[in-house]
Each structure stands twice: as C-alpha cells, then as structure tokens.
Amino acid sequence: MSGRQGGKRLGTQGAEGAAATVVESRADAAAPAGPSGTGRVALLAGLFALCWGWWSSFHDVSALSVPPFPLLAQADPASFTAGFTMRDLSCITDTAGTCIGFLAAWRFSRRRAEGAPFATAVVPVLAATSIGYYLCLFRGIMVGIFAFQFLFCVVAPFLLVTLLGLLFSLARERLLPCLAAATLGSAAVKSALFLATLPSGFGVGALAASVAVTVAACALSFLWLRNVASSNVAANRERRSEEGRRAWLLGDGLWTPLLHVALFGAVFGIIHTFPTGSGHTPELRTLCHLAGTAIACLWFAVAFRPSKGTASLVRIWHFTTKATFPVIMMGLFLMPLIMTDAYTVPEILSQVGLALYTLSLFAAFALVARHTGLSPFVICALCLFVYYAGQVVGLLGPLLLHGAMPFDSTAFTIVASGAFLLLVIAMFEIPIMTGMRTYWGLEEKTSPKGHFDDRLRRRCREIAGDHKLTKREEEILFRVLQGQRPSTIAEELVISINTTRTHIQRIYAKTGVHSESELLSLARDAAPKA
Questions:
Q1: Same domain, 78 and 226
Q2: Residue-wise over 518-529: b if at least 16 C-beta within 10 A, else e?
Q3: Mean pLDDT, consecutive 10-residue segments, the chain of 530 residues?
Q4: What does pTM read for this prediction?
Q5: Which of 382, 413, 440 marks a domain boundary?
Q6: Residue 460's CATH number
Q7: 165 falls within a domain
Q8: What are the C-alpha distances in Å from 98 to residues 48, 257, 263?
Q9: 507 and 415: one domain?
Q10: Is residue 476 part of a domain?
C-alpha cells in the first residue's frame, strides 16, 4: 500500500522541514567543535576531497609503476593467459580490496550509527600502509606494491564512509554544491599525485610529495574525527535503536536501487578496460579524466543550483536518466576511437558520465538517509560496496574476453553490446522510483515517518489477529516496535508502568517470544494483507 493511503500527509515544504529536522538532530549529535556553519562544512568537504583523491591515486600510480607484462613470464603471446598483465592484476587488486573494505564498513556501521571512533583508530594504519606502499614503489618491489595496495584499499573505506556520512549529515541545504566541489577536488588531488610520478617514474620528488599528502590527510582526519568521536554516546545509541527498527521495514524496497547501482558499477568496470593497449600517454588519460570530471561537476552544479529549488529524489533520478545515460552511450559508441588520435572524445565523455552518476548516487542516497531517518553511514557503505562489487564483475568480463581474443573491432562490439544491455536494464527495466515511493514512503507530499507507522500498524494488526491480542495489547505492541520505553508508553496511554509491563509480558506469552529482538523478528516476518 502506498504511503499516501495511511501516512500523515504533509505539504512539500512540510516534508522538507521534517527531513531537515532529522538531519539537524543527527548533525547536532555528531558535530565537532571548531568552525561553525559554512566554514565547518567547507573544511569537511575539503578533507573528504583530499582523502578520496589520495585513495583514488593508488590505482593510477600502480598502473604507471607496474610493468605491462603478462602474469606468466613464459606465456605464449597467442595463449589465453597472455591477455592478463600485471597492470590488470593491479586493477583487480584495487577494486576487489575496495569492495571488501566497503563490505566490512557496512557491517560495522550496522552496529554503530557512526564509525568515527573506529575510523580514528585506523588512520595510523592507513598512514603506515600508504608509506610502505610508496617505499615499495620507489624500490620496485612488486609483491610489496600489491600487498600494501590491497591492504590500504581494505582499510581506507572506514575513513571514507565516515567522512562522507558526516558530510551527508552536516551539509544540509549545501549538500549538492559540497558534493560537486568535493568530487572536483578529489579529481584534482588524484591527478596531481599521478602527474608527480611521471617525470622520473617514481623518484625522490614523487615519494616526498606522496608522503606529504599522506601526512596531511591522516593528520587532518585524525584531528577532525577525534572531535566527532567525543559526541554523545547515549544519543547515538538511542538513534541506532530507532534506525534499526525502521531499517528492517524500509529495507523491503532496498533491492531495486541497489541493483541499479550494481549494474552501473559493472558498466563503469567495463568502460575502464577499454583503453587497454591503446598506446596513449598517461598524461593524456589523466587530463581527460580531470576535464571530464570538471564538466560533470559544472553541469551538476548548474542543474541543481539553489535558485531552482530544493532537490528531490525524483529530480535526482530524472537527471540521471536524462544526462548520464545518453552521455555514457555516446562514449560507448565512440570507444573504437581510442585506437586513434581522437582518443580524447570517448574518454572525456565516459568520465563525464561516471562523474555525473557518482554525484547523483551520493546525492540520492544522502536524501534517502535524510528522508527516512536511516543512518547515512550505513546507506553510504552499503551503496559503495554494491557499486564496487559491480565494478569487479565489469572488470573481469572484458579481461577474460581480451585474454581469449585479439583487442580489435570485434572485441569492442561484444563488450560495448554487453555494456549497452546493462545500461538499458538499469535505466528502463528496474522500477527504482516506484519501489522507493511505495516501500519507503518518499512521495512528494507524504511524511516517511507516517508511511513507516502505517506499515507497522498493519503488521501489528496481523500479529494481533494471529495471536489473539487485545486492542490495548495491539497498541502497546505498536509502541514497543516503535522503540518506546515502558515509561513513555505508560505516560502516553495514561496507565501505570506496572500495567504496561504486565501487558508486555502477556504479549510475549501470547506470541511465544522471550525478548524484544524476537518480537522484532516476528514483526519483520509478518506479511500484512493489502
């Protein structure tokens, strides 16, 4: 049943006001001391850009430093294994490690509303790992390069998820320009670190620049997160309890947007393998990526400028359909040009599409967290895990194909056709907006809390009918599942706390459960009739 049928109805401004209240309460609990307002948000956006660009540079630096030799030194050039190079292994190592890292960050975030204390603890590990990685690059130790690269990509997501979740919470109405600025800033940091390695391979100058960025990113992150980690623990625990109760119910419709994200991740993984063997210089590729990101950020900032009103999920996804899809398709159709002097055209187009989708993805899931009250840390970690899992699949497909057949027009046609099919499925076959409206109550004039309460009441009605609960017990069951304490229930229903506890014990006895967690499981499994 749609949220319009039973939820509390609000005007558009009312829904936005309720969303802002959720964000403000979370921001107040997690906000660090120091600059306030715009200055604090700008500092956080800059810190996220620095850390994201620093992390992104690992893959590009490895691609330059690792020789493009077959994995098996004695492989026959015509054999299947000759198609896999050390650079391909570096690419898979980076993406697979990132996927594992975001999975671990998601599992951790489910138990904690924010991961600031743990992220603070991993910052020294990131510093040591990255310096070891740079030293191995400097000495040309291949085993050390792969080992440190993988370890860094597993640990870094804890820091990235925490910083991005804080940005989601603190930016409020400045979220979209902050995302555009942070994305462009991260591309600039990545490009600068990568270009610093080019004059002499990975020499003393590049090593000094990389270590300086490492020290700056780790020191700033550590100082910021120490303040965040000192926020009110009791408030965080209470918020986690409320979010946990909503998460299992609102999660019914989560698979549709996540499938969309996974398919797009696979498409970008496929596109990433196209330049293999093109012979173009690393400088040109890096400048193409930077130019594409700049175009995308400018486009995004203009499309969602403040004068056009507050962005909604509907506008975000319509923008993704109207902008990202055709840009990526043009890039795919022009991909054969990467073997010619016109390489820059498809490369810039594909980077514009990737950056636009990344911005839309961050904005959409930030709005989901804001509207539903779910933790932005959990939403961010889960979304990025699914995205990079799709990238792993997208990378392996073309690499298997390139290992089995020459890198020619036939291979281009097969790979581009696969990417086109995935794009069509993602954009036109997955009812993403229908699912988010129906299951999450994100209609323009409906309160998500009212939608949640409506669905919860229907489940309580089913449980009451199946287990012969009285009307009073059904009402108390509803309030228990909302996360209310017995004292609060007694006060709102104007009964004694002993009577409330007696009713709760009778509910436990009639339903055959022994704890609140078992009661939540029973409600989760209840299937309310339409």
A1: yes
A2: ebbebbeeeebe
A3: 33 37 40 56 90 87 67 48 64 88 85 68 90 86 87 91 86 84 92 76 79 90 76 48 57 75 88 64 82 92 74 78 84 73 79 90 82 78 91 81 62 78 83 69 65 80 87 88 84 89 90 81 62
A4: 0.79
A5: 440
A6: 1.10.10.10
A7: yes
A8: 17, 20, 17
A9: no
A10: yes
